[in-house]
């Protein structure tokens, strides 16, 4: 039995966007979409979006008004209901309106899976606000992608204060060229962002736009004392303050999911595992637990991935496959049974959490992270309360 494109469907959502309640727009008027003009094809649309998302006093409004997103996203990819991707360019109807709306845009596919995007502007703003930047700060961005966020930072702070890193050399090459074309010259570096960018340290602010499973020690080493780190961890965005060699803080409210930091991972062959797995056992958690508890699960089973098998006619989920890079797998059926293989009983961890939270996860902002040189853990309510150790992030 092959999973029915379920991984791709899920990964379709792995572009930086938010699904929780939105911050209400600063003004309630609808965005107007003036026709592009030859001199500045999108000035009016940019201004309208900036006004939709920010108050007049917002320090990021001028950057939003000035930085042309279309230079960084000359085309993007959209998936139709049949999961087919199509490229949208400036000649495609709706390009301009979509580009200057509050939408995350997929910009790169690798083997059919999104591997880079331009994040949802309101989510980018939430993260920039959480960074609490003031003039003179030196900022490190992990996940250059299109370069658009780096351009907003450089517009606000000046080129020499901004360093941006992406693991993908094609992306950094293109982003650096587009940044220069737009008139911004931040330092663009190719490498694993988990290593930071030591040659430009120290940093007052560190922002990541790909999801991590824990805080890389290099970030804390390269941060100034009292630096702020804003980074997606699992299905949430953590905001930590650095105190010497320790970083601690809570998650921001609201749901957000970013593309994971790139590490190789292919789905296990669940069909073959069927023959070697122990007999199925009864499950005490419903299939839907993976969805309702996805944020705490992203902390307790870091780096887990899953796929689903659906009924061809009804589209109802028949089974779920769950796995982690250490070779642990769980194959859960809608009939309430589960087969598990590998070093960890992954579904038991889901069942424990389902029981602990009675099926409903506490709000994100009740969770926090503490990172020390010796240990990192996620906690609920306070750093000394119930907690889950996070894996250490090694650099590639
Ligand atoms: C959501 S996109 C970034 C959006 C970007 N900030 C922008 O404004 O367009 C996430 C990016 O993280 C990058 N990435 C993934 N793993 C990484 C790693 N280990 N180190 C640095 N960048 C990484 C991806 O290549 C991708 O471009």
TrEMBL record:
It is an enzyme of class 2 (transferase). Residues 32-42 have a biased composition (Low complexity). GO terms for molecular function: protein-L-isoaspartate (D-aspartate) O-methyltransferase activity. GO terms for cellular component: cytoplasm. Its main location: cytoplasm. Pfam families: PCMT. Residues 1-42 are annotated as: Disordered. Residues 7-30 have a biased composition (Basic residues). GO terms for biological process: methylation. PANTHER family: PROTEIN-L-ISOASPARTATE O-METHYLTRANSFERASE (PTHR11579), PROTEIN-L-ISOASPARTATE(D-ASPARTATE) O-METHYLTRANSFERASE (PTHR11579:SF0). Belongs to the methyltransferase superfamily. L-isoaspartyl/D-aspartyl protein methyltransferase family. This is Protein-L-isoaspartate O-methyltransferase. It comes from Streptomyces carminius.
């Amino acid at each position: 039995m092959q999973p029915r494109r379920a991984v791709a469907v899920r990964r379709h959502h792995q572009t930086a966007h938010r699904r929780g309640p939105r911050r209400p727009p600063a003004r309630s008027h609808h965005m107007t979409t003036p026709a592009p003009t030859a001199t500045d094809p999108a000035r009016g649309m940019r201004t309208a979006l900036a006004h939709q998302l920010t108050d007049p006093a917002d320090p990021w409004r001028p950057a939003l008004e000035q930085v042309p997103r279309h230079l960084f996203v000359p085309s993007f990819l959209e998936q139709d209901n049949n999961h087919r991707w199509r490229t949208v360019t400036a000649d495609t109807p709706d390009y301009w309106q979509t580009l200057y709306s509050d939408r995350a845009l997929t910009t790169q596919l690798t083997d059919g899976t999104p591997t880079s995007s331009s994040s949802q502007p309101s989510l980018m703003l939430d993260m920039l606000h959480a960074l609490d930047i003031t003039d003179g700060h030196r900022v490190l961005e992990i996940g250059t992608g299109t370069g658009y966020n780096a351009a907003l930072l450089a517009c606000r702070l000046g080129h020499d204060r901004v360093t941006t890193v992406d693991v993908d050399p094609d992306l950094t090459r293109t982003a650096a060229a587009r940044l220069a074309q737009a008139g911004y010259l931040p330092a663009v570096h190719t490498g694993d962002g988990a290593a930071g960018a030591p040659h430009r340290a120290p940093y007052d602010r560190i922002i990541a736009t790909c999801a991590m499973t824990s805080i890389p020690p290099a970030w804390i080493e390269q941060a100034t004392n009292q630096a702020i780190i804003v980074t997606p961890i699992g299905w949430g965005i953590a905001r930590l303050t650095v105190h010497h060699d320790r970083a601690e803080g809570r998650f921001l409210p609201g749901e957000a999911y970013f593309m994971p930091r790139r590490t190789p991972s292919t789905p296990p062959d669940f069909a073959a595992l069927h023959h070697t797995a122990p007999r199925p056992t009864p499950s005490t958690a419903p299939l839907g637990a993976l969805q309702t508890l996805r944020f705490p699960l992203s902390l307790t089973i870091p780096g887990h991935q899953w796929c689903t098998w659906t009924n061809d006619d009804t589209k109802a989920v028949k089974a779920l496959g769950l796995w982690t890079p250490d070779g642990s797998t769980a194959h859960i059926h809608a009939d309430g049974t589960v087969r598990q293989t590998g070093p960890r009983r992954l579904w038991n961890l889901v069942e424990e959490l389902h029981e602990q939270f009675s099926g409903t996860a506490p709000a994100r902002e009740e969770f926090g992270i503490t990172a020390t040189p010796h240990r990192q853990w996620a906690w609920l309510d306070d750093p000394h309360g119930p907690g889950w150790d996070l894996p250490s992030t090694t650099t590639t």
